[in-house]
Specification:
Length: 319
């Protein structure tokens, strides 16, 4: 098991290095001169040279990359050129908000998708199956921003059930925090719910046709133990993989969701950095996102091997 984790960690480090290289290079290839944007009205050559020297942009690009990477490894992500605030401090303040939103969205998706997917598979070809597929299609088709606006219009403006926007820390008021995060979590979780529901249905259908399931039924076991004890565990293996792959989709959806509901999270911070062409901010955001995505996939790989030990055994034999 330890060898399995170490191998995955080494692969993740290589991938992270390549990501940082690509992001740094692509930032420098963007058209236009960001120094002229940062300088504002001070467009004389001396001012432009001052800004280039201040932010190290007068150095060769490989040296800029090595300097930034060396500081990033030490935890120094630089200062925002737009605000002058330490990027690491801003990320540490905003990242927990987006993580809370993503975890709540994941919880919403699992609570809806798991029973719906199993029910659609067990009742294949019935009204429950068609209804589940229709809900999944709706979740995949509806844009986050439209659904968020509709929920605000009806639940906040017309019926006054939930706050329309804003954020309250759970440490200040947990009940108010959940009231304000309920709509964003539901909006963000709809797309993941649809993907998980379809994957669970497909996986359960495949497992229910397996020989060991037919044997369990032949022994006289009731349908519930057959489905939930024998079939569901093996059916969850591809579902766990889908959860890891959807981590990036959750972050992408969080950017739009946080904009709609005015949540001061990591997604909104990254979008502000892109619009202002803030090199330090964008590079730090991509770095943290890549690290998070790789960690999620590492956890998924470990969970995958725990659910099906043959995976890590096969990897060890291949070595």
């Amino acid at each position: 098991m330890i060898q399995f984790i170490v191998r995955r960690l080494l692969i993740s480090i290589v991938v992270l290095f390549l990501i940082t290289l690509m992001v740094f290079a692509s930032q420098r290839l963007l058209p236009g001169d960001p120094v002229r944007v940062w300088a504002g009205e001070e467009q004389d050559p001396e001012s432009l040279a001052f800004f280039r020297h201040k932010y190290g942009l007068d150095q060769p690009i490989p040296l800029q990359y090595l300097t930034w990477l060396g500081l990033a490894v030490q935890g120094d992500l630089g200062r925002s050129i737009r605000t002058g605030i330490d990027v690491r401090d801003e990320i540490m303040r905003r990242l927990p908000i987006t993580l809370e939103l993503a975890l709540l969205a994941l919880l919403v998706a699992i609570v809806i998708a798991l029973p719906a997917g199993v029910l659609a598979a067990v009742r294949q070809g019935t009204l429950w199956d068609y209804l589940g597929n229709a809900v999944a299609l709706f979740g995949l088709s509806v844009p986050h921003f439209w659904l968020g606006i509709m929920l605000i219009l009806w639940l906040s403006v017309h019926w006054h059930w939930l706050p329309a926007s804003g954020y309250v820390s759970p440490f200040e008021n947990l009940a108010e925090n959940l009231r304000r995060m309920l709509m964003p979590a539901f909006v963000l979780g709809t797309g993941l719910t649809a993907v998980l529901m379809r994957q669970i249905r497909s996986s359960v259908l495949g497992v229910l046709k397996a020989d060991y399931v037919r044997t369990a039924r032949a022994k006289g076991l009731a349908e519930s133990p057959v489905v939930y004890k024998h079939a569901l565990r093996n059916a969850l293996i591809p579902v766990v993989t889908v959860l890891g792959l959807q981590a990036g989709a959750l972050f992408g959806g969080a950017i739009i969701t946080e904009q709609v509901f005015v949540i001061p999270g990591f997604g909104k911070y990254s979008l502000d950095g892109v619009f202002s062409r803030d090199y330090a901010q964008v590079q730090a955001v991509v770095l943290i996102t890549a690290v998070g995505y790789l960690l999620v996939n590492l956890v998924v790989d470990i969970a995958y091997s725990l659910i099906n030990p043959r995976i890590r055994l096969e990897g060890a034999e291949a070595e």
